[in-house]
Design goal:
By secondary structure, the protein is mostly beta strands. Helices cover 14% and strands 52% of the residues. It is built from two helices and six strands; from the N terminus they run ββααββββ. A six-stranded mixed sheet has the order 1-2-6-5-4-3.
Length: 96
């Protein structure tokens, strides 16, 4: 199970993000309700916003964004930013 990378152009926490890296972990339990396309749409909702980390372990800051609405359904996104990097790493995502 390899991580998948996608190009994107959004601003999160005042960082210009140009890549999303999706860990396939979500597929173990949630493949029937979510896919990479939905995850990318959820990541786009982060654009222009600032988030306080839920946890920090240098060089990573971990975030949990809950109740993201997409197509009338709510989702939870667990993601990471790495110091001095320009990607968002999606650790897990699922429908609420």
């Amino acid at each position: 199970m390899n991580r998948r990378e996608y190009n994107i152009s959004i601003l999160v926490n005042e960082i210009l993000i140009s890549k999303v890296i999706i860990d396939p972990h979500y597929e173990e339990k949630h493949a029937e309700s979510i896919n990479d396309e939905i995850i990318l749409e959820l990541v786009k909702t982060l654009d222009g916003k600032y988030f306080d980390p839920d946890d920090e372990k240098t060089p990573y800051a971990y975030f949990v964004t809950d109740k993201i609405e997409y197509c009338g359904k709510l989702y939870k996104l667990i993601w990471v930013l790495e110091d001095h990097e320009i990607y968002i790493g999606v650790i897990n995502a699922y429908r609420r």
